[in-house]
């Protein structure tokens, strides 16, 4: 009998960008599954907006198409305001200061909510003390569900 347990994962920006650039990717399927709940710090939306020209060049899409695709990819993602994880931001910055300081908000979010880790292509999360899920691990997990 299959389990009904859902994974709860913090979503790293590189996963969204990868899904955006690779139109027929396993990552897109993973982001759209009902078997995983994804959480994303709101700062990622501003980060994606800041790089809209680069995203258009990399994808070959217009700005309108890029934003539509991002909206589609994030349709099942819970966007979390900074206030919800700010209490753990100092601790996260300490953890990430010698790893990748820019990812402190993802770590702070992971420290603030009940979750099963972070979905990321960045190996530096392996040194953060937070479980990093790869595409391959999630595919295997989903096949068991």
Features:
globular, alpha/beta, 145 residues, 5-stranded parallel beta sheet, Rossmann fold, 48% helix
What does this structure look like?
With 145 residues, the protein is an alpha/beta fold. It has a single domain, classed as Rossmann fold (3-Layer(aba) Sandwich), CATH 3.40.50. The protein has eight helices and five strands, in the order βααβαααβααββα. Strands 3-2-1-4-5 form a five-stranded parallel beta sheet, sandwiched between helices. Helix 6 (89-96) packs across helix 7 (104-112). The termini are close together. The mean pLDDT is 91.
Question: Can you name the CATH architecture?
Answer: 3-Layer(aba) Sandwich
CATH class: Alpha Beta
**How many strand units?**
5
Strand content: 5-15%
Helix content: 40-55%
Query: For the terminal residues, how far apart are their CA atoms?
Result: 9 Å
Largest sheet: 5 strands, parallel
What quaternary form is this? single chain
The overall pLDDT average reads: 91
Determine the CATH topology: Rossmann fold
The CATH homologous superfamily name equals: 5'-nuclease
Give the helices and strands, then pairings:
Blueprint: E1 7-11, H1 13-21, H2 26-31, E2 36-41, H3 43-50, H4 52-59, H5 63-73, E3 77-80, H6 89-96, H7 104-112, E4 117-119, E5 132-133, H8 135-144
Helix pairs in contact: 6-7
Quick take:
This protein has helices at residues 13-21, 26-31, 43-50, 52-59, 63-73, 89-96, 104-112, 135-144, and strands at residues 7-11, 36-41, 77-80, 117-119, 132-133. It has 145 residues and is α/β, with parallel strands linked by helices.
């Amino acid at each position: 009998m299959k389990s009904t347990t859902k994974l709860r994962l913090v979503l790293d920006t590189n996963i969204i960008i990868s899904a955006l650039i690779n139109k027929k990717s396993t990552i897109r399927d993973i982001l759209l599954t009902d078997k995983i709940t994804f959480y994303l710090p709101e700062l990622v939306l501003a980060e994606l907006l800041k790089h809209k020209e680069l995203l258009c060049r990399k994808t070959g899409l217009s700005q309108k198409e890029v934003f539509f695709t991002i909206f589609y990819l994030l349709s099942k993602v819970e966007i979390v305001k900074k206030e919800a994880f700010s209490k753990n931001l100092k601790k996260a910055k300490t953890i990430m200061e010698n790893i990748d300081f820019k990812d402190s908000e993802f770590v702070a979010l992971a420290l603030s909510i009940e979750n099963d880790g972070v979905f990321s292509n960045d190996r530096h999360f392996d040194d953060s003390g937070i479980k990093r899920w790869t595409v391959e691990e999630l595919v295997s997990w989903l096949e068991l569900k």
